[in-house]
Amino acid sequence: MTPDDDRTHVFTHSEEDAKRAEMIPDTRQTRAPAYRLAFTDTDFLLREELRPVRLQLELLKPQMIMDERGIESTVVMFGGARIPAPADAASARTPTLAALTKYYEQARIFARAMTERSMASYGREFVICTGGGPGVMEAGNLGAHEAGGQSIGLGIVLPHEQAPNVYVTPDLCFNFHYFAIRKMHFLMRARAITIFPGGYGTLDEMFEALTLIQTGRMRAIPFLLFGQEFWESIINWQALADAGTISHEDLDLFRYVETAEEALAIIDAWVPPC
User: 26-37 pLDDT, tens per residue?
Assistant: First the structure.
């Protein structure tokens, strides 16, 4: 028995009624907003009171699509949208950004190697997952594309946001309104997290994930920061531990790496803490 078998659907399909609703006579009553089917009424769905429903829909849509694609686990890549590819280093807005192009390259190499491994599971395990934008995100999706595999892009609507980078697998290219739901999808399937140099968004995503692991709300997984010099120049981790605002053991929640090879070696050798 298939899902479309008449015996599994004793009621009229909602899709059928949606089509029928478009074929009704044009009268004052049928033109009234109140007459629209609730699930096809965009004005109704966008009302303030419907926010809980929209949150649920935004959680469900990517979840269902990834389930249908058989994706079991992901490798998350966070990093700056402003870090250019090496070929564009000369046009970088600051000398520091120009120097950070090496991490674009490492992100690409890492994603390609991880995707080659993912293909052994027919693309179900260790699928590259980025924010779908430019910079480091583009490098991650590019590496997966070069390996001939699929990758996920979790975009979000922002005033200055561009279109998704062209290397995201189209059927796995999502767009979000709610940051919170987007963050959930980054972490729900994560088997490793990599953090490349970045700005506010990268910092937000990094600390959100670290907090979940620190508080035991998420299991410990490989958590790799690319670029020790960069991270130690902007965050005094040791000062946090010395002040007692975090425990010294919390400094063990992440590891520094410089190259894709180092990151792969740590992931391969990972033994979950007891």
Answer: 999 899 999 999
